[in-house]
UniProtKB/TrEMBL annotation:
InterPro entries, sorted: Gal_mutarotase_sf_dom, GH38_beta-1, GH38_C, Glyco_hydro/deAcase_b/a-brl, Glyco_hydro_38_C, Glyco_hydro_38_cen, Glyco_hydro_38_cen_sf, Glyco_hydro_38_N
Residue stretches making up the Glycoside hydrolase family 38 central domain: 298-371
PANTHER family listed in its UniProt record: ALPHA-MANNOSIDASE 2C1, MANNOSYLGLYCERATE HYDROLASE
Name of this chain's protein: Alpha-mannosidase
Record has Metal-binding as a keyword: yes
Length: 910
């Protein structure tokens, strides 16, 4: 290493908003830190700059308490002495959706621009692994770098610290995404606190810098050495200028600079000219480590949080935003301010110590409230938008099909045509209390409403089989825009039926009418035998223990022993799972179950399976002893208790008439501690790799871990689904908020999905008991098994898995004329390899923005046509900047080629 070296010392603090302390206790310390920072900047020009952890939410948190200091903050941000952004929060990359990451970058930039300019730094100091599409997200955000602390093993200068299996020669590397996007990667090889608490005293400083300079030079590719002066919730080092002067005196051959990221990058890039760095491709998941410290099992800590997050993300990005965009086409204002508020509230649960479920109980209680708050805003936006759209549908066509029609609209806010079972609660009749009949008379009249002689029809008058549940007399109310609330009593029914071929981002209208029809024949059943369900695609046979066999009629592939549950002890913590040594897993294989038909309708068949499962009540007493002694979890010797408890499992297995998969709903009444429950789905397919849904990517991973991997468990992250495919057949397992899976090396390539994990401590650097992480009580998990011909994209299996994430939306409406036809969609698009991601509106321009990503590693054609007036199309970035005009075809459609794994955003100017 050349003796010409520069020590770049960057002042910062890594600010977990909540973790081992509740949010407000950290909040108090944050206010104290920023107060001290502003005072230091006021009084000492030698303290040049401070990096505010890459997240603009710190400004909101501080100014919530100190609004009088806004001008001081803005002054130093505009002067470049406080660097902010580019994110709104520092998120976990594997547990938050692609669109959530885009909103995070968009809102971070928007908020930063109010004060100055966002720092173009791809900042991931403590993210628990990084998804493969980060380089593309950075490039589309105008960022050419990524600073991160986990995921890659560097070997260091001249291989001096190599222990095998390294992925990069240095802490500096080229990181390439699956689309070919590249950024300069900077690994905090000595962590993001390697320049923390620099001594002023010469003796102490000599010992400090001898060690620190040598440590940095082990990994650095150049003489530009990075030292991060700060750590988690670290107070400001007020005497840093004095400490730098001491270092300069001790090391005349070294230049010490109170630096910042832009200055460091500028010097580093100059020094790297002509140097060849290692290129690391795709996901950074610490694949080449022993597997004990990857923090991967945060994907299953407090599963209920992940399920709430999945619901919240889906409602905002896949329902509320598309419906609001469609309503805007009809003249309704797009509520940008409310979307920003809802997204911010949701993203406050996305930091790695929050969504990962690895904090103290108080933190996660507050998260539940935030999830509810964001969801309530989304639901209000959905209700407003769907009402506007439904009111614009021409329902007058139903007048000729029967008497007293009650129209309803079914919305498909997914990006593909959809068929499936929907339910709606319909007011068959209503009397407002303002009519003055009195509660008794109003109730009597509603109870007397005749519900007989009615049937459901589509917009062409065809009868649609449905079931009707009379919900009886119910109270309701309207909240008009121009009047006081309007309470009423109603007679309500619940209709359940199959909505067929509802267009992508479109709607279809039905009506419940009274008419004199011929006596209906007995509806068809999907049951073809004892505990056997069957449609045109699949056959499902349920065994006495509740497991089942699924036959894919298209391929003839038979999948056996599906739906067995596995239970093991867990003596780990919120970060990592640890099975007791020598323990044999318990399963429900052969365990007698109570089985009954739950639903036998023409659109769906369902079977209920109930187990009473005797499992150990907890770990034995040694676990508490080892936790108190801070025994590192891989070395714990605790076993499971000999005392048993009854865990009740209820499984509902459903097959829809047009279904491409089997739906599974599992309800667990958890009475045990220190354990894990998984659902097992053997594939019996010959494969060495598998595919998994990640952020804007279908990632391919090896089933066999790297040689360095020592952990017996090889659990990994997923978002919407995981898939194992062989020659001519494949099995996709979709989930709702179940972010942990493992493909077992059991000779059957079994897909194991974690449903529940119960632990009693946070883990990490001390003892922080978390009794609520035991997750006692009732939990429900939902999955869908989708067999296919071996290609999840071409077969449509991945499309089915994505649609599984998104609820149907329904709305009752009135009889009226309208500008929209009863079956309507504003867009049509084609592109088999493309996954639809979002439809929203740009606040500055009013343009519509549609986004897709290419699931394939090959280029794929996207064709887009519109049923709405428009001026032109253009291609843009995730920041919705740098528009590139696109040419329409003679037919008025857009056709473009999406590159390998490309994220494509199309703007529509109206």
């Amino acid at each position: 290493m050349s003796k010409q070296r520069t020590a770049h010392i960057i002042s910062h603090t890594h600010w977990d908003r909540e973790w081992y302390l509740p949010y407000e206790k950290h909040h108090v310390r944050l206010v104290e830190l920023v107060d001290a920072l502003l005072d230091k900047l006021d009084g000492d020009s030698a303290f040049r700059s401070f990096y505010l952890d890459g997240q603009t939410i710190i400004l909101e948190d501080y100014l919530q308490v100190r609004p009088e200091n806004k001008a001081r903050l803005e002054k130093y941000i505009r002067e470049g002495r406080i660097l902010i952004g580019p994110w709104y929060i520092l998120q976990d990359a594997f547990l938050t959706s692609g669109e959530a990451n885009v909103r995070n970058m968009q809102i971070g930039h928007q908020d930063a621009l109010k004060y100055g300019a966002p720092a173009k730094i791809g900042y991931f100091p403590d993210t628990f692994g990084l998804v493969g599409q980060i380089p593309q997200l950075m490039q589309q955000s105008g960022i050419g770098n990524a600073f991160f602390g986990r995921g890659v093993k560097p070997t260091g200068f001249n291989n001096t610290v190599s222990d095998g299996g390294y992925e990069s020669s240095f802490s500096e590397l080229i990181w390439e995404g699956p689309d070919g996007s590249k950024v300069l990667g900077i690994l905090f090889a000595n962590w993001y606190s390697n320049g923390n608490e620099v001594p002023v005293d010469e003796t102490e400083a000599k010992a400090f810098w001898d060690r620190k300079l040598a440590d940095a030079e082990k990994y650095a590719a150049t003489g530009e050495l990075l030292f991060m002066n700060g750590c988690d919730h670290q107070p400001l080092q007020l005497d840093l200028p004095e400490a730098i002067r001491t270092a300069e005196k001790l090391y005349p051959d070294t230049k010490f600079v109170h630096s910042n990221f832009p200055e460091y990058l500028n010097e580093l890039e100059s020094a790297l000219e002509g140097r060849e760095l290692s290129t690391v491709k795709g996901e950074l998941r610490s694949q080449r480590t022993d597997g004990w410290g990857t923090l991967v099992n945060t994907a299953s800590a407090r599963v209920y949080l992940k399920q709430m997050n999945q619901e919240g993300q889906a409602l905002l990005e896949k329902v509320a935003e598309p419906l609001a965009s469609m309503a805007n086409l009809l003249g309704k204002d797009y509520p940008h301010h409310l979307f920003t508020y809802a997204w911010k509230t949701l993203m406050q649960n996305h930091p790695h110590d929050s969504i990962c479920g690895c904090s103290v109980d108080e933190v996660h209680r507050e998260m539940v409230t935030r999830f509810a708050k964001s969801r309530h805003v989304a639901e209000a936006l959905i209700d407003d938008s769907k009402r506007v759209i439904a009111d614009a549908v021409n329902t007058s066509v139903f007048a000729g099909y029967g008497e007293d029609p009650l129209p309803l609209v079914v919305f498909n806010t997914t990006g593909w045509s959809r068929t499936g079972t929907v339910s709606i609660e319909l007011d068959a009749a209503r009397l407002y209390l303002r009519d003055g009949l009195g509660l008794e008379e109003t109730g009597r009249r509603m109870k007397a409403v005749d519900l007989s002689g009615r049937e459901l029809i589509d917009e062409q008058g065809n009868t649609v089989p449905c079931t009707v549940e009379d919900l009886g007399l119910l109270f309701g109310y309207d909240l008009p825009d121009d009047k006081f609330r309007q309470p009423y009593m109603c007679r309500r029914v619940k209709l359940t039926f199959q909505a067929a071929d509802v267009a992508a981002l479109g709607l279809r209208t039905y009506a419940w009418v009274r008419r004199n029809s011929a006596v209906a024949s007995k509806p068809a059943s999907l049951f073809t035998g004892h505990r056997v369900m069957e449609n045109a695609n699949l056959k499902v046979e349920i065994a006495e223990d509740g497991s089942f066999v699924m036959t894919d009629k298209a391929t003839g592939q038979v999948y056996r022993d599906l739906g067995v549950y596995e239970n093991t002890g867990d003596i780990g913590n919120e970060y990592m799972y640890k099975q007791p040594e020598g323990e044999k897993a318990l399963t429900t294989k052969g365990l007698a179950a109570q089985i009954r038909v739950l639903e036998d309708a023409p659109y769906r068949a369902s079977v209920e399976v109930c187990h009473d499962w005797e499992i150990p009540v907890s770990a034995d007493e040694k676990l508490d002893e080892e936790m108190r002694e801070l025994v590192y979890y891989p070395y714990r010797k605790a076993q499971r208790s000999s005392k048993l408890t009854t865990l009740k499992l209820r499984t509902v297995i459903s097959l829809e008439a047009a279904g491409k998969g089997v739906h599974i709903e599992t309800t667990i009444d958890n009475t045990a501690k220190d354990h894990r429950i998984r659902a097992l789905f053997p594939t019996d397919l010959n494969a060495s790799t598998h595919q998994v849904d990640s952020m804007f990517e279908i990632a391919e991973r090896s089933i066999e871990p790297a040689p360095e991997w020592e952990n017996p468990s090889n659990t990994q992250h997923q978002q919407a689904f995981v898939d194992v495919s062989g020659e001519g057949a494949g099995l996709t397992v979709a989930n709702l908020g179940l972010n942990e899976y493992e493909v077992l090396r059991d000779g059957r390539n079994t897909i194991a999905v974690t449903l529940l994990r119960s632990v009693g401590e946070l883990g990490d650097w001390g003892l922080f008991p978390t009794p609520e992480a035991q997750c006692l009580g009732v939990h429900t998990a939902r999955m869908e098994l989708i067999p296919h011909k071996g290609d999840g994209v071409a077969s449509g299996a991945f499309t089915e898995a994505y649609q599984f994430q998104i609820p149907w939306t329904v709305s009752q409406t009135e009889m009226h004329e309208g500008t929209l036809s009863p079956a309507y969609a504003p867009f049509q698009w084609e592109g088999q390899e493309l996954a639809f991601s979002s439809l929203k509106m740009n606040e500055a321009t009013g343009d519509l923005l549609l986004r897709w990503y290419n699931m394939s590693k090959q280029s794929s054609e996207l064709t887009l046509g519109l049923n709405i007036p428009h001026e032109h199309f253009y291609k843009t970035t995730i920041l919705e900047e740098d528009a590139a005009p696109l040419t329409k075809s003679a037919a008025g459609c857009l056709s473009l080629l999406a590159g390998s794994c490309e994220i494509v955003t199309i703007g529509i100017r109206r």
